[in-house]
Design a protein that fits this description.
This protein has 20 helices and no strands. The protein is an all-alpha fold. It is globular and about 60 Å long. It is a multi-pass membrane protein.
Length: 506
């Protein structure tokens, strides 16, 4: 039986719902603006490149043993575990007139600038507080504090920037892949500039004021490189935030998913931890597989990113920190290899969309991880050959060993570009379809990244010491994890994804 007027009321409700949907869906943002927003990745990654190429050797110059060097890097995963989900949660609900993401991006950029100033001047700070050249406990404390602040600031900046790209592309998987490929491209540019900066050893001549009684040539080069990092951060932050025209979130709204998640979006004051755990209950099977593959992938990557230049200085050039020039020459050559690696990241990022469109994101991700595993195995073989070659009478190792190492560094750029792009695009489109806030969604993905980093940071130093103190044991674990992640991605992730619209019954 039909109730009189019920059909008209139902039609009115449907029209009202359709009007709300049309009004809530923003117009497509031009790709040129997305390109400018993604340029923030250049400034962020320039600083990361300096960290990866210079700070592990610098840590050991300050007097921290190799076995404990990985513990210094533990701050990054720990801050990422808490900071990025929290910042994402806050940015999803931010009602600032400047937008949801911009305030956090700017605050993070300012924090990065403060952090690199502390790191670059840590030796000077220690000298002012009473350190000597033989004992630098105060410099170590200043360095660690600055390093922790830097990792907090990086997480505070990168998460909202990724979320902003997801906001601008919405549920369109193709545009999401393009946006993240742009971000990966700018990360490659930042890497190239950062590693080129780290591999140049003459900055102290250009900035002679950086040399002090407490800060030698190597320290002055580090300090000068971070001054350049500050300039890059200022430029890229301005270019990025000036391109994004964010619509302020009304104070009576907490997310942009009004109809899809009423139990979360209507709870503005829900505590962060409750919101985070509540988010996990909405994750589908494919999302859990993405998180699993991400975790295994980073078990593979983190030993390499942590010890790449140190591996070149110790195991290829057979150098010892603070003893002779072989170690520093090896570190510089490692930075050059990472620069070549970044060139491949940039090239791969340009063709990423076409490759994923043809083969599917999951398959491309899996193949790239297997390639990464083979590269780590090649590094183990190179280490074994170098260890058993007698070139002690020469100042440098044979050219063939160095070239082979550089080739491996270069090839690893392709899987690293995939890691920087495909998981973010896959998680963004799937969580958008579920109505999850993009800031918190990026934080959830980051948890899958930092948990393996914590494990590697805690275990790699003792694990390496157990087998003689080199980097090869950690690379062996990384090779196994990378191969496993590749198999899971190929077998369990769909090659393509077409989001199905959610049907909301009235």
């Amino acid at each position: 039986m039909t109730v009189p007027g019920s059909q008209n009321r139902g039609t009115t409700r449907v029209r009202s719902r359709n009007n709300r949907t049309e009004n809530s869906v923003p117009k497509k943002v031009p790709l040129r603006k997305i390109f400018r927003v993604a340029s923030m990745g250049c400034g962020i990654q320039f600083g990361w490149a300096l960290q990866l190429s210079l700070l592990t050797p610098y840590v050991q110059e300050l007097g921290i043993p190799h076995a404990f060097a990985s513990l210094v890097w533990l701050c990054g995963p720990l801050s990422g575990f808490l900071v990025q989900p929290l910042v994402g949660h806050m940015s999803d609900r931010c009602t600032s007139k400047f937008g949801r993401r911009k305030p956090f991006i700017v605050a993070g950029a300012i924090s990065i600038i403060l952090a690199v100033l502390v790191i670059g001047h840590s030796a000077d700070i220690g000298g002012l507080l009473g350190d000597t050249n033989q004992s630098r406990p105060r410099a170590i404390i200043a360095f660690v504090l600055g390093f922790w602040l830097l990792d907090v600031a990086n997480n505070m900046t990168q998460g909202p920037c990724r979320a902003l790209l997801a906001d601008l592309t919405g549920k369109d998987q193709r545009r999401s892949r393009i946006a993240n490929a742009h971000f990966s491209l700018f990360m490659a540019v930042g890497n190239i500039l950062g590693f080129a900066t780290g591999s140049y050893s003459g900055w102290f001549r250009i900035f002679p004021f950086t040399i002090t009684s407490s800060c030698s040539v190597n320290c002055a080069n580090l300090k000068s490189a971070f001054l350049l990092d500050i300039a890059f951060m200022v430029i890229t932050t301005y270019v990025s935030i000036s391109a994004a025209q964010e619509v302020p979130l009304p104070s009576n709204r907490s997310t942009n998913s009004e109809n899809e998640r009423p139990d979360l979006s209507d709870s503005v004051h829900e505590p962060f931890i409750g919101e985070l755990f509540h988010t996990f209950t909405y994750l589908t099977g494919p999302i859990w597989i993405i998180l699993l593959v991400t975790s295994l992938t980073w078990v593979g990557w983190f030993p390499f990113l942590l010890f790449d230049t140190d591996w070149m200085g110790r195991e290829i050039y057979k150098g010892i920190p603070n003893e002779g020039q072989n170690y520093h020459t090896g570190v510089s050559m490692g930075a050059f290899g990472l620069m070549l690696n970044s060139v491949v990241i940039g090239v791969t990022s340009v063709v990423m969309e076409k490759v994923c469109k043809k083969w599917g994101g999951g398959f491309v991700w899996g193949v790239s991880n297997i390639l990464m595993s083979f590269c780590f195995v090649a590094m183990l073989i190179i280490s074994f050959v170098a260890k058993n070659m007698d070139f002690s009478a020469h100042d440098l190792p044979p050219a063939g060993i160095v070239i082979a190492s550089l080739v491996v560094f270069t090839i690893l750029g392709a899987p690293l570009a995939v890691t920087y792009s495909v998981p973010y695009a896959m998680i963004a489109t799937r969580t958008e379809a579920l109505g999850l806030g993009q800031g918190l969604s990026m934080g959830v993905l980051n948890i899958a990244i930092v948990i393996p980093q914590v494990i590697v940071s805690l275990g790699s130093g003792p694990w390496d010491q157990l087998f003689g103190g080199g980097n090869s044991p950690a690379f062996a674990v990384g090779a196994i994890a990378a191969f496993a992640s590749g198999l899971v991605a190929i077998l369990a992730l769909p090659r393509s994804h077409t989001g199905k619209p959610r049907i909301i019954h009235v």
